[in-house]
Amino acid sequence: MESTEILKRVSKTTLQSPRLWGSMSVNQMLTHVADQIRICLGELPSKPRGNWLTRKIVGWIAVNVPLQMPKNMKTIAELDPNKKYMTQPTDFQKDFDTLIASYNKMLNLPDSHQFEHPVFGQLSKKDVIKLTNIHLDHHLRQFGV
Q1: pLDDT in tens, 20-67
Q2: Could you report the per-residue pLDDT of 62-117, keeping only the tens digit for each?
């Protein structure tokens, strides 16, 4: 999934985008995904949760096997809209702009940049973009985009 395609789909998101499953509002989804990117960028703290299995096997599968994320999948506390850690939404345009800015910042880092993922450990820029696009695709489908 290409980043240009993902950005086109994100740009079609509106405050009226219908939620097809789950409990997040569209604003919560925007801040949820922006926070995921900001964690990978090292801008937000996140407790490491990975172990050998998630860092070596599950991470490899998540990046290399073309699977969709399942509906209603549990998230980490830092990305849970019902917990105090996730950035709380403000207004749609501001939340949208924050997501786009974070996404573009990730895209514009040098290709040699290494990211620290709380579950999968150290990842390349290419792998973080791929995981972010899978995550965004999941939530864009959640809102019919």
Answers
A1: 999 999 999 999 999 999 999 999 888 888 888 888 888 888 888 877
A2: 888 877 777 877 787 788 888 888 899 999 999 999 999 999 999 999 999 999 88
Q: Which two tokens stand for residue 20?
A: 């097809």
The model scores a pTM over 0.70? yes
Identity of residue 54: T
| Per-residue H/E/C for 89-139 | CCCHHHHHHHHHHHHHHHHCCCCCCEEEECCCEEEEHHHHHHHHHHHHHHH
Q: How many domains does the chain have?
A: 1
Domain range spanning residue 68?
A: 3-142
What is d(CA 85, CA 38) in angstroms, rounded to the nearest whole number?
A: 13
Q: What is the DSSP letter of 85?
A: T
Report how far residue 135's alpha carbon sits from residue 137's, in angstroms, rounded to the nearest whole number. Answer: 5
